[in-house]
Amino acid sequence: MTMTTTEVLRWDTDEQKALRQLAADFTRKEIVPHLDTWEREGAIPRELHRKAAEAGLLGASVAEEHGGSGGNALDMLTILEQIILSGGSSGLISALFSHGIATPHIIASGNTDLIDRYARPALEGTKIGALAITEPSGGSDVANIRTTARRDGDDYVINGAKLYITSGTRADFVTTAVRTGDAGAGGISLIVVPTDTPGFTVSRKLDKMGWLCSDTAELFYDDVRVPASNLIGAENSAFGQIAQQFQGERLSLAFQAVATAQRCFDLTVEWVKSRETMGRPLSKRQVVRHRLADLATEITAAQTFCRSVAERWVNGEGMLLETSMAKNNAVKVCDTAVMEAVQLAGGIGLMRESEVERHFRDARVLGIGGGTTEIMNEIISKLLGL
């Protein structure tokens, strides 16, 4: 696919270059020296949220009137991409930017009270938000959510459980999907639940294969009473809200997958040029060069497709089909890249001291979060009329 000059400039303006430099400098100074420690501890410090906010990284895609920097989704995608390219990880992004899935519904609702109480503090790095949709009884089946919210006077009383919730152990508030109506997609609502509310508990912190520095939790709601004013949008309207915001989440994961692939490629190129076997560098072997040439081609194609889809999505096009395709394709390319990186690194690629080992583990989440590869294929199949 040939990109026009206008399209290329959208990713290479002076503002984009400045954002990349900002993200790169922040990552090398505030993240890379500590990432191994955070991986072992299973969480990032709250202070990092404040530092990222002060640097202007948390609200790049949010309007200034809501506490952001006034940019768009392309700006945020650029930041996420550059963090990984500079030595960060998708797990770090999951933890530091969990407000990116916890607050968009709040901001989109236009509810200034909720924005001021929850979205602004999250963008300032003083509060941590989480999004709770997945339940023990099901993952991607949003229409069959079982956690209930019963109206009682001026409050809702919430009962149920949520599973695999990013930032769940550190969150100050949880944007929670609940059932307020009849069965099916038409009976779902979103409510903001402060985590200091009586009856709300973190049932357990979960141990994972990857994204080790991103805390993940199971949450329990036992007669949790929250004001009805914490309802996001109209009652029983959440299915559409969730579906709309899923597109942004899927694009984010696609960009993270492509960036992870590129980072692994860059690290592997450095390695094969310096690593000698039987008297010559690995890069002098045709089989190695050709494998990397194929990988570079796949990464470039995936990046081009992701950027094209992102531009059209920001311009207001629906892009459900293309977003699903972009995510699946990016994940597939990333899987190939992390496998090649570990394989060509040899023994060191299996060691925790190796960056590619972390990317290898983290990559497994990308095909699950935001809708599994299989769910994406179901969406693609239906939209193709199959």
TrEMBL record:
<dbReference type="InterPro" id="IPR036250">
    <property type="entry name" value="AcylCo_DH-like_C"/>
</dbReference>
<dbReference type="InterPro" id="IPR006091">
    <property type="entry name" value="Acyl-CoA_Oxase/DH_mid-dom"/>
</dbReference>
<feature type="domain" description="Acyl-CoA dehydrogenase/oxidase N-terminal">
    <location>
        <begin position="13"/>
        <end position="125"/>
    </location>
</feature>
<dbReference type="GO" id="GO:0050660">
    <property type="term" value="F:flavin adenine dinucleotide binding"/>
</dbReference>
<dbReference type="InterPro" id="IPR009100">
    <property type="entry name" value="AcylCoA_DH/oxidase_NM_dom_sf"/>
</dbReference>
<keyword id="KW-0274">FAD</keyword>
<dbReference type="Pfam" id="PF02771">
    <property type="entry name" value="Acyl-CoA_dh_N"/>
</dbReference>
<feature type="domain" description="Acyl-CoA dehydrogenase/oxidase C-terminal">
    <location>
        <begin position="239"/>
        <end position="382"/>
    </location>
</feature>
<keyword id="KW-0285">Flavoprotein</keyword>
<dbReference type="InterPro" id="IPR009075">
    <property type="entry name" value="AcylCo_DH/oxidase_C"/>
</dbReference>
<dbReference type="GO" id="GO:0033539">
    <property type="term" value="P:fatty acid beta-oxidation using acyl-CoA dehydrogenase"/>
</dbReference>
<protein>
    <submittedName>
        <fullName>Acyl-CoA dehydrogenase</fullName>
        <ecNumber>1.3.8.1</ecNumber>
    </submittedName>
</protein>
<dbReference type="Pfam" id="PF00441">
    <property type="entry name" value="Acyl-CoA_dh_1"/>
</dbReference>
<dbReference type="InterPro" id="IPR046373">
    <property type="entry name" value="Acyl-CoA_Oxase/DH_mid-dom_sf"/>
</dbReference>
<dbReference type="InterPro" id="IPR050741">
    <property type="entry name" value="Acyl-CoA_dehydrogenase"/>
</dbReference>
<dbReference type="InterPro" id="IPR013786">
    <property type="entry name" value="AcylCoA_DH/ox_N"/>
</dbReference>
<feature type="domain" description="Acyl-CoA oxidase/dehydrogenase middle">
    <location>
        <begin position="130"/>
        <end position="224"/>
    </location>
</feature>
<dbReference type="GO" id="GO:0016937">
    <property type="term" value="F:short-chain fatty acyl-CoA dehydrogenase activity"/>
</dbReference>
<dbReference type="InterPro" id="IPR037069">
    <property type="entry name" value="AcylCoA_DH/ox_N_sf"/>
</dbReference>
<keyword id="KW-0560">Oxidoreductase</keyword>
<dbReference type="GO" id="GO:0005737">
    <property type="term" value="C:cytoplasm"/>
</dbReference>
<dbReference type="Pfam" id="PF02770">
    <property type="entry name" value="Acyl-CoA_dh_M"/>
</dbReference>
<dbReference type="InterPro" id="IPR006089">
    <property type="entry name" value="Acyl-CoA_DH_CS"/>
</dbReference>
<comment type="similarity">
    <text>Belongs to the acyl-CoA dehydrogenase family.</text>
</comment>
